[in-house]
């Protein structure tokens, strides 16, 4: 926490705005809008997953539709497709950013179109905070007129060619879950340049109540709005977001500086124009065996590290879904490891972790 979170939470109590609406919600949304892009409209929600669910619904995804989704991601990117009774089609990553491969995406679209199925949306993810190939992916989206849901859950504070992530898709989504770069303990946001998207998202997120004196409903609604208490935490967190990004980038640079010399450990570099918040620092080891040796050596010292996300096309729940893959994300999963990356790590901690890894390699 940065310090002012409790002040804003206290304000919610003092003014009795203990509800899923109130001044903290409005001001938190404004703070995100000011940070990301003056042209975006933000709806604060109960989670990033809720944001992805609403984004797909706003783009017209429904029963029986197909949605293209980056395979190399956390399951919350794909689960909302299933909530709507639609079918995910998984697409592999490229090795420059570890995100959606433009070539495989276009191949998938062409093949689905040839089979008479027009995918309703593309879910592209800025994984670990690294922006996806925004120019190439946006071009494909425009060419085939398939809208993008930009899963920016891990990428608040990242940018591409000087423009902040969250503002590239037809609809963008942030997460403020406890593990993200800033947090409201649990929370999320939907972002769009189209004000109608925000209005509809808020409408659906507050039980879709029609304009009538009694309770009348002509849509199925959800209870997805953010609490005014938690939005108070969010306001305080926005004040320290840039510090958190700096701390995460420091972790990454420290690991890279100490682990690349005379080793076969690789890091994910920022291509020119890309700026990652370095939410998590990830390394690529030469093999699954080396990765496991490092992970277990750290675990022996009570230090948690984790394999990279297991691709969705390899997950038991999605095993029957079509996929357009070339082994890239499977290889990343086998050889990759997320190192301890908290914003509160001390240099002493980093030295200790580096020494243990060096001992293995
Ligand atoms: C965390 C995360 C989500 C889900 O956000 P929640 O706020 O936890 O629901 C979605 N996509 C990705 C890539 C994430 O890392």
Automatic annotation (TrEMBL):
Keyword Ribonucleoprotein included in the entry's annotation: no
Pfam families registered for this protein in UniProt: DegT_DnrJ_EryC1
Superkingdom to which the source organism belongs: Bacteria
UniProt KW keywords: Aminotransferase, Pyridoxal phosphate, Transferase
Molecular function in Gene Ontology: transaminase activity
InterPro entries listed in its UniProt record: DegT/StrS_aminotransferase, PyrdxlP-dep_Trfase, PyrdxlP-dep_Trfase_major, PyrdxlP-dep_Trfase_small
Matching Gene3D superfamilies: Aspartate Aminotransferase, domain 1, Type I PLP-dependent aspartate aminotransferase-like (Major domain)
Keyword Transferase: yes
Family label: Belongs to the DegT/DnrJ/EryC1 family.
Protein name (database record): DegT/DnrJ/EryC1/StrS family aminotransferase
Native organism: Euzebyella saccharophila
């Amino acid at each position: 926490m940065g310090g002012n979170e409790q002040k804003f939470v206290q304000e919610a109590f003092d003014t009795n705005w203990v509800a899923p609406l109130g001044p903290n919600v409005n001001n938190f949304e404004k703070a995100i809008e000011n940070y990301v892009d003056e042209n975006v409209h933000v709806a604060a929600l109960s989670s990033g997953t809720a944001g992805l669910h609403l984004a797909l619904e706003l783009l017209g995804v429904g029963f029986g539709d197909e949605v293209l989704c980056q395979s190399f991601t956390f399951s919350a990117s794909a689960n909302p497709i299933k909530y709507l009774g639609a079918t995910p089609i998984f697409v592999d990553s490229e090795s420059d950013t570890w995100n959606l491969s433009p070539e495989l995406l276009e191949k998938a679209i062409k093949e689905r179109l040839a089979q008479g199925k027009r995918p309703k949306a593309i879910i592209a993810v800025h994984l670990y905070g690294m922006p996806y190939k925004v120019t190439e992916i946006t071009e494909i989206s425009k060419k085939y007129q398939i809208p993008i849901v930009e899963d920016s859950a891990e990428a608040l504070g990242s940018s591409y060619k000087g423009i902040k992530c969250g503002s590239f898709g037809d609809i963008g989504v942030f997460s403020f879950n406890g593990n993200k770069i800033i947090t409201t303990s649990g929370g999320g946001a939907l972002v769009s340049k189209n004000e109608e998207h925000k209005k509809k998202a808020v409408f659906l997120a507050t039980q879709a109540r029609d304009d009538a004196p009694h309770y009348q409903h002509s849509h199925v609604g959800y209870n997805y709005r953010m609490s005014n208490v938690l939005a108070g935490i969010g306001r305080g967190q926005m004040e320290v977001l840039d510090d958190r990004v700096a701390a995460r980038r420091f972790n990454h640079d420290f690991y890279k500086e100490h682990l690349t010399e005379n080793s076969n450990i690789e890091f994910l570099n920022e291509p020119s124009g890309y700026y990652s918040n370095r939410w998590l620092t990830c390394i690529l080891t030469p093999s699954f065996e080396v990765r496991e040796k490092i992970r277990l050596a750290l675990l022996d010292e009570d230090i948690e590290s984790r394999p990279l996300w297991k691709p969705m096309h390899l997950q038991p729940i999605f095993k029957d879904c079509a996929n357009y893959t070339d082994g890239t994300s499977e290889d990343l999963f086998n050889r990759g490891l997320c190192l301890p990356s908290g914003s509160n790590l001390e240099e002493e901690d980093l030295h200790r972790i580096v020494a243990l890894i060096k001992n293995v390699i």
